[in-house]
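FAQ: What does a ligand-bound record look like?

Like this one, built around N-carbamoyl-L-aspartate:
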Amino acid sequence: MQVFTFERGENMLSLHEYESRIDRPVMMKIPEFNRENRLKHILFSSQMDKMMIDMLCRTALKIKHISSTKPGSDYLLSLLSHKRAMLYFTQVSTRTFMSFMAASQILGIKCNEIRDQNLSSEFKGESPLDSIRMFSSYFDVIIMRSKTPNFAEACAYLMNDLDQFNQRSVPIINAGAGADEHPTQALLDIFTLQRTFGFTSKKDSSKWNYYRELKKNHPDLTKGLNDKVYGFCGDLRRGRTVRSLVNLLSLYENISVAFISPDSEDFRFPEEEIKRLEHRGVTVYEYFSLDEAIDKVDMLYMTRIQKEYDKPDQSKNYDELIGEFILTPERAERLKTYCPILHPFPRNEEIPFEIDSNPRAMYFRQARNGMWVRAALIAHLFDVESQIANYYQDKFSEYHNYNMEAI
Ligand code: NCD
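The answer part, i.e. the structure of the complex:
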């Protein structure tokens, strides 16, 4: 059992009262965070099954198309203009913070933010759990990223308890917690892969409509996420995005995962999680250099070394280590022609700038996809997906053929 505390000197917060609930296996917790096949809070990637993923991705695509016109954007803006969101991001973030803010704004939600505990009443010794309850009095959804492992989960229990006593309660969204999970990033990664492996759009794939051409060299290549080898490279132990994404990928048929990292417990994907994946039918390979794996993968997900999680006595010479794991232009040319390069960002030296013009580079599109997916998730939480679907049907479907079947 970990001890859940905030590093606030005298004002250490213990999540003690939630310990026994936090300590349960994830699958036991899910009924408390989902309600009648809908998400009530968003905490773990395992809350989503394939049907829910497909539904959310379809909504994301509709939001994207609807917002491409002014009347469409105005319609989306009107949907949740009566709602307010609190972005409580006390762990550093630029992308995810901005992405959630933009997603909320697409739907007309007004946002407020706390990014520094020292500028809130927590500086006066207020418990962060009290802060969260206070926010729930003013706001309609709380989107949070905290250094404290399991804090978002504890907040969701707090909201559920309030709900049970007929007190005001609002949804909690985990926007990345400690080194554990990053469920909304995993969903946007899946959305990006669905669009890429649809092999239908000029922008999403490295060539326009070239599936038939590809099949000549890759006769076994299928559309969609099944039957693929997914490569993950870098700091696989401490990168939460990898953990959440492999969890969602394990829902697909006949998939393999290639973990590519330095041969050290500090970076390798954890053994017990590999066993869990294998148990779910995923074939797992481990490589200790990018060169060995590069021509075998159908996707390459690069990650940076998560230096901020180093213990003070754990100073490493990363320069020596990282060389084998940099995606140089020469290495990138050895990737399969259709292999998307993904990265959750921020990047360090693992993807040099020259790679940005490689048609396989999908990381900027991936970030933009995040905004649509997060808007879809918020629309789901506030139950306005069917209104979005109806608007799309009325105003868009006759003009566009976006090959929805591909996702
Ligand atoms: C990642 C994160 O914060 O977990 N970035 C993100 O959310 N887009 C990855 C990272 O920090 O390396």
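Follow-up question: can I read anything off the structure? Yes, for example: The pocket of N-carbamoyl-L-aspartate is lined by residues 95-96, 176, 182, 185, 240-241, 303-304, 344-345 (CB under 6 Å).
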